[in-house]
Write a structure and sequence with these properties.
Blueprint: H1 2-30, E1 36-42, H2 52-63, H3 73-84, E2 89-96, E3 101-108, E4 111-116, E5 122-126, E6 131-132, E7 143-147, H4 173-186, H5 189-194, E8 195-200, E9 206-210, E10 216-220, H6 225-238, H7 240-243, E11 250-252, E12 260-262
Parallel strand pairs: 1-3, 4-7, 7-8, 10-11
Antiparallel strand pairs: 2-3, 4-5, 5-6, 8-9, 9-10, 11-12
Length: 263
């Protein structure tokens, strides 16, 4: 019993000592001037909208040179705000290393669609439904959406329904439907390789253009998306295998249990 008690007391003492040492190291680290500022740009989808040097210039332009400065919590917070507010950045992580290095990790947005709206404005929507601008550094190879799209670009605006309203924001229903449609296409290897252009018609319905331009797919509204694509895939496998890809100019999958073709 005494040995067990001594073991517990020793463990507590060691833990307390370790906590004191860690606290001292952390405090000492915060007082150590930064001798190196490193930036890592992380692109999950291989798109490079902004370079590390661009972020460095933006940060030092607002905070001056960071090397040689004591970077405390306030300065860390300011730097995080600068990096996190870059429109191409989905999330930012700023931290100090034990040896006095300052590191910034900027994870970029994953583009889903490039929009060209009715006012000829062009912007991206990412996989989370958030708008962000085009980049001078890089052009993403994603689906293009054109036609009757009236919503203008608004920095950081999310077109998906909020948790509170459960509905799309006013005036963004078309963009919401586009995101739903494009998300399904991007999630399927065949359709993602096959379709690269979505057109919004004046009546709010959708047409899809394959990359090879063989015909126009009259999709209708963004309803029963999975069933319509399933029906179209069966038609490709069973119908076009006999007639050939270039036999029809238009293929309509809007109506239930029907595929209507025209030349």
């Amino acid at each position: 019993m005494i040995k067990k008690l001594l073991y517990i007391l020793l463990s507590l003492a060691l833990a307390a000592g370790l906590a004191v040492l860690l606290g001292f190291a952390a405090s000492n680290n915060l007082q150590t001037p930064c001798h190196r500022f490193e930036i890592e740009v992380i692109s999950r989808s291989g798109n490079h909208f902004i370079r590390a040097e661009n972020i460095r210039q933006l940060a030092t332009g607002k905070l001056d040179t960071l090397e040689g400065k004591v970077v405390g919590p306030e300065l860390l917070g300011k730097l995080h705000g600068i990096v996190n507010n870059i429109p191409y950045v989905d999330k930012a992580s700023i931290y100090r290393t034990i040896n006095g290095e300052l590191k910034a990790e900027a994870t970029l947005r994953d583009p889903l669609l490039r929009i060209i709206n009715s006012n000829n404005q062009s912007y991206y929507i990412d996989t989370q439904g958030t708008m962000f601008p085009l980049s001078d550094e890089y052009t993403a190879r994603v689906m293009l959406a054109t036609g009757r799209i009236t919503t203008d670009y608004s920095p950081g605006f999310n077109v998906l329904p909020s948790k509170e309203t459960k509905e799309a924001s006013p005036g963004t229903e078309t963009l919401y439907d586009l995101v739903r449609l494009a998300t399904f296409i991007a999630g399927d290897d065949f359709w993602n390789a096959f379709i690269d252009h979505i057109v919004v018609l004046p009546n709010g319905k959708f047409e899809l253009t394959p990359k090879n331009g063989v015909h126009i797919i009259e999709f209708g509204e963004a309803t029963n998306i999975e069933k319509k694509f399933g029906k179209l895939r069966k038609f490709y496998a069973n119908g076009l295998s006999r007639t050939g890809w270039y036999h029809y100019n238009r293929v309509n999958v809007e109506f239930k249990q029907q595929v209507i073709c025209s030349r």
